[in-house]
Structures are given as C-alpha cells and as structure tokens.
Design a protein that fits this description.
The longest helix is centred in the C-terminal third of the chain and has 38 residues. The radius of gyration is 23 Å and the shape is globular. With 409 residues, it is mostly helical. 65% of the residues lie in helices and 1% in strands. It has a two-stranded parallel sheet with strand order 1-2.
Length: 409
C-alpha cells in the first residue's frame, strides 16, 4: 500500500458522516467485538474462540475508520484522530488478547483478601469494562515491568479525589490551550493555519531560527502532555462518579518526565505507559525472539513509531512516515548508546549532563517530527470542545484588571 493510498483511506473523501445509522453500522460493531474479546480473555479454554473473533474485530475496526467524526469541519479533524487511533488500538490490543496463554485476572479494589476475582462469566462481563479502558493493567495480572508513579496527594476519599482531579483538569485545559495559542501566533499564516506550513523559516537568522524551532518543539511536548493528562483526568472523574471506582484505580499517568536524566528513564518510567502492553507484546517480544535483545528494543520503538504515524495521518493531511517512525527509531539508537556508555564506563547516564543529553537528543530528532505536525496543520486542527479558549479569556481578564488598577492611578 502506497503513501497516497493510505492518505486516501484517511482522507475525508472516502468517509461517511456520523449519523445514528452509521454509528450502529460502523462504530458499534468493533466496540461490541472488543468488549467480548475482553470477556473471553478472562476465561479459561477460550483461546480458539478469541482467535476466531480476532479477524472479525480487525475487520470491523477497519470499517470504523471510515466515519467522519469532524462533521466536515477542518477545525474538528482531531475527532477523526481520536476515532482512528482507538480503532487501531482495538485491533492491536485484540491481537495481544487473542494469543494470550493465561487468562487475565483482576484484583478488584473491593477484595480485601488479596485473591483475584472469581472466574465466573458474570464477573468477566463486569470486569471487561475496566479492561477496555485500563491500558496499563492497573489491578490486573498481565502488566510486565510497569512502574506506577505515586500520587502527590494520596487519598481514599472519592470526593476529595474528584475535586483534585477537577482542579487538575482545569489547569491542564489552560496549559493545553496556552501552548496552542502561542504556537499559532508564532506563525498564523503557516503552521498556525488549517492549511499548515513548515516549521522552518529560513528568512530568520540561523541562530534565531534554531532557537525558535527548538522552542516550538518543546512547546509541542508540553501540549501533548497537557492533552493526555486532560483526557485522563476527565475519565477519572467520570468513572469514579458513575462507576464508583476508587482513587487507587487512577494513579498518576506521568512521573515528572521533565526530571528525566536519560532516554531510558524517560521512555521506560517517566513518560506515560499506556502503550507498554502493545510495545512489549507486538514489538519487544517477537523482535527479541527473532533478532535478540537489541532487535527486541528496536521492535518496541518501531511499534510505537507506527502507532504515532497512523495517529498523524488520521487527520487526513498526509505525513512522512520516515520522519515520524524515524524519531522513535533514533530514540532507540539513543537508548543503545546509553547502554554502550554504561558498559564502557560502568556508570549510568545521569545527572546534569544526562539531562542535557536527553533533551538535546529529543530536540535533535524531534524538531523534524514537529515539522510534519506543522505541515499537516495539526496546531490549528486541535482545539478544546466548542473551540473554547480559556487562556485567551484569562489573558483578557488579566489585561482588563491591569488597565483598571494600574493605568487609572
């Protein structure tokens, strides 16, 4: 399949609008298949049925990407991004679940005896809902080597947790929108527009252009951080209120990634681990089996690169797979270099120089990926629901107060 054909699939010309009928025909079937795959993976002796259900799930997920969630509004193209990445996630997680050798077991927070939940069909039907959204496997027996950060303010009270999450949600919304507004104003006619444009501006002096590109690149990382945190806090509030889940089921998603002193630390612990199951099962393990430990490491980063490439293309505006996947491959190279350093010197990469190395390496290869985002018009296609701009509103309020208080003296 060529790049043009891939873009054709993700383009709006081949999509159908979201209606009640298209929801029932295109979106509901993969959700139902994914749910029953989550039920079967908890029950013994169901591997044959899971393998039989897998191609059906993959097929329905493929059909699901042809729904246009944006309503034809280019500013809402991010809705298609969310749909397509979820459909791809259904297929990829479905593969992992279909080949699982041991049943998944959940340790419900209500069980105080330390034993996993019963193996009944009823329990599996209920726990499948948690399994569908629990990408890190919190409270389950299947995560491998995942490190979960401890909350800054630990509480068992649902009310207190919901209030804290609501406050965080407001802050992340503000941070996300502020990051977008700054980037849009840096280049309103190019990468700040829906048509997009290159991040690079060769009319600027070389040093100024370099600093500007690095600034936008790191601002993009913060924007992604705020966006992911925003979604996570919203889900936490919804599931704790509606499904009476406990705060312990929603531990921090990140572990202060800005404190990373090595690429190994950043990607292995401090960045979110939502893709860890897919990276390990579809990349690290099969590639490691075929090509050894180094091959497994490469396979893990390759899977992550493919996933993020699909995510960018889901906007329907193309993208350079070599650049997007190349960013993750070069992070693999960076991790290998860190291991070589440790083997040669006996010391891990760390400290101040480790932090300079980490973020310098990210800037070196990340700026090219951010350029692909810019050319796809992603910074304009992303927005909060209803085009709400809290940072703009806050800036106007602060300016109004400043004028009234200081300029009238």
């Amino acid at each position: 399949m060529t790049a043009d054909s891939i873009d054709g699939v993700f383009g709006a010309s081949q999509k159908v609008g979201l209606t009640r009928t298209t929801f029932l025909v295109y979106i509901l079937p993969p959700l139902v298949c994914f749910y029953f795959m989550g039920v079967l993976v908890q029950l013994k002796g169901t591997r044959f049925y899971r393998l039989a259900l897998l191609p059906v799930l993959v097929w329905f997920s493929w059909r699901g990407i042809f729904v246009d969630m944006s309503g034809g509004d280019p500013k809402q193209a991010q809705m298609n991004d969310m749909l397509i990445t979820h459909m791809c996630s259904f297929s990829m997680r479905g593969i992992v679940w279909a080949v699982a050798r041991e049943p998944f077991r959940r340790q419900s927070p209500w069980n105080t005896d330390g034993k996993p939940d019963s193996e009944s069909v009823y329990t599996a039907l209920w726990n499948a809902w948690d399994l569908m959204i629990n990408t890190r496997g919190i409270g389950w027996n299947w995560p491998q080597g995942i490190i979960v950060a401890k909350p800054t303010f630990e509480t068992d009270s649902r009310v207190v947790f919901v209030l804290l999450s609501a406050a965080r949600l407001a802050l992340y919304m503000l941070g996300f929108d502020a990051s977008l507004q700054i980037m849009r104003r840096l280049s309103p006619d190019l990468f700040g527009s829906l048509d997009g444009g290159s991040l690079f501006d060769h009319t600027l002096p070389p040093l100024l252009e370099l600093l500007r590109d690095i600034f936008v690149s790191f601002l993009t990382i913060w924007m992604a951080y705020f966006a992911i945190q925003l979604s996570y806090q919203l889900l936490a509030v919804v599931f704790i209120i509606l499904f009476q889940q406990r705060p312990s089921q929603w531990p921090p998603l990140f572990d202060s990634p800005w404190l990373s002193t090595s690429l190994t630390e950043l990607w292995g612990r401090r960045w979110h681990q939502m893709l860890r199951e897919l990276v390990v099962k579809l990349g690290l393990q099969p590639f490691g089996y075929l090509f050894g430990r180094l091959g497994g490491l490469f396979g893990g980063f390759l899977v992550s690169g493919v996933f993020h490439d699909i995510e960018l293309r889901s906007l329907g505006r193309g993208g350079n797979s070599v650049v997007i996947i190349g960013f993750w491959v070069m992070n693999c190279v960076g991790v290998v270099l860190e291991r070589m350093w440790m083997k040669r010197t006996g010391r891990r990469v760390g400290g101040v120089w480790g932090r300079i190395w980490t973020f310098g390496w990210l800037a070196l290869w990340g700026v090219w990926m951010v350029d692909e985002w810019a050319k796809a018009g992603r910074f304009r296609a992303m927005s909060l629901p209803g085009d709400v701009e809290p940072s703009v509103v806050l800036a106007r309020v602060i300016r109004s107060i400043y004028v009234k208080v200081f300029l009238t003296l």
